[in-house]
């Protein structure tokens, strides 16, 4: 599928970093065929840590764009912009990476496959009561309508088959393989958030912490892993607020099964730490500083054993 181009502003911002990371952050915007995700294996010995980045992608197939009233600045603003590049050194630190390359406006990989309402998919056999931003978004985070008309159930199924199921199949397979190595696996779901809640968020206008680890009240990972992450960010001088306003999405809850050796933590990074939110352009020194903090976190997680923390 040919994918739409974004604004010149985005291209300028992307050029600051993609030349440094050609293997880890390819430019998918101009490809004639869109790769829906990148799976990046460790450079050295594999350790049981998987970093997954579901929302940094920006590509939208033309047939999806044709069904939407979607300004490209909206795509950029609602993406977890540059998070894939912030974690790009993870494979050099013996962790595995899984990075979605399509926009969350294609499918939202941090939702259940059946998380849709009748206004999104009119003939869905079992819609939920109300969900404007489920596995397919029909409104932006500011409440503006996106879809020109509801999808058919068949169209939803085709989109899931193409973009959703392959991603989660690889995610599950990788978690199983990593657990088989040592008896446990740690999943870091890397996200970013606006510095203040938007109109459709649960905290409109509220200023947010620098880092929000989401673990659904500490239920998706061992306490020692959560404490390690908390202490790491605080020691870097960052403010931390657990589960507020994000408790961890579907992926964290689904794969966070510490009693079975799977530990999942969603990490929301405040975008004001590394980009100019007015322009979506990264601030280079702040970006590199935050990336160093994340490198150190991945390094610590690859060396820890949740069973002994």
Care to give the gist of this entry?
The protein is an alpha/beta fold and 309 residues long. 30% of the residues lie in helices and 13% in strands.
What can you tell me about this protein's structure?
The chain is an alpha/beta fold and 309 residues long. Helices cover 30% and strands 13% of the residues. It is built from 8 helices and 8 strands, in the order αββαααβαββααβββα. The chain has helices at 8-18, 62-65, 72-77, 83-86, 153-182, 223-235, 250-255, 284-303; strands at residues 37-40, 49-53, 96-100, 185-193, 211-214, 262-270, 275-276, 281-282. The strands form 2 sheets. A 6-stranded mixed β-sheet has the order 1-3-2-4-6-5, sandwiched between helices. Strands 7-8 form a two-stranded antiparallel sheet. The longest helix has 30 residues, at 153-182. Mean pLDDT is 88; it is low at 1-13 and 16-32.
List the helices and strands and how they pair.
Blueprint: H1 8-18, E1 37-40, E2 49-53, H2 62-65, H3 72-77, H4 83-86, E3 96-100, H5 153-182, E4 185-193, E5 211-214, H6 223-235, H7 250-255, E6 262-270, E7 275-276, E8 281-282, H8 284-303
Parallel strand pairs: 2-3, 2-4, 4-6
Antiparallel strand pairs: 1-3, 5-6, 7-8
Helix pairs in contact: 6-8
């Amino acid at each position: 599928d040919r994918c739409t181009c974004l604004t010149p502003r985005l291209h300028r911002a992307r050029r600051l970093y993609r030349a440094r990371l050609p293997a880890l952050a390819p430019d998918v915007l101009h490809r004639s065929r869109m790769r829906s995700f990148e799976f990046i294996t460790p450079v050295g010995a594999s350790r049981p840590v998987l970093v997954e980045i579901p929302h940094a992608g920006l590509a939208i197939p033309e047939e999806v764009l044709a069904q939407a009233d979607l300004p490209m600045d909206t795509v950029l603003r609602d993406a977890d912009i540059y998070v894939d590049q912030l974690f790009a050194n993870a494979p050099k630190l013996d962790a595995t990476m899984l990075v979605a390359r399509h926009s969350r406006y294609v499918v939202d990989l941090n939702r259940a496959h059946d998380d849709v309402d009748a206004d999104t998919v009119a003939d869905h056999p079992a819609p939920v009561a109300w969900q404007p931003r489920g596995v397919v978004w029909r409104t932006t985070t500011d409440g503006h309508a996106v879809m020109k008309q509801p999808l058919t159930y068949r169209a939803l199924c085709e989109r899931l088959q193409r973009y959703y199921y392959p991603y989660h199949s690889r995610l599950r397979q990788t978690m199983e393989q990593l657990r088989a190595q040592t008896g446990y696996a740690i999943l870091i779901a890397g996200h970013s958030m606006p510095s203040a809640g938007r109109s459709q968020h649960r905290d409109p206008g509220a200023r947010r912490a620098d880092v929000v680890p989401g673990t659904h009240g500490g239920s998706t990972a061992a306490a020692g892993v959560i404490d390690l992450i908390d202490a790491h960010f605080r020691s870097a001088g960052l403010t931390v607020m657990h589960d507020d306003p994000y408790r961890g999405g579907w992926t964290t809850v689904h794969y966070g099964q510490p009693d079975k050796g799977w530990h999942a933590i969603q990490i929301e990074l405040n975008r004001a730490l590394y980009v100019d939110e007015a322009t979506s352009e990264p601030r280079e020194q702040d970006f590199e500083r935050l990336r160093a903090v994340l490198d150190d976190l991945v390094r610590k997680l690859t060396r820890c054993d949740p069973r002994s923390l």
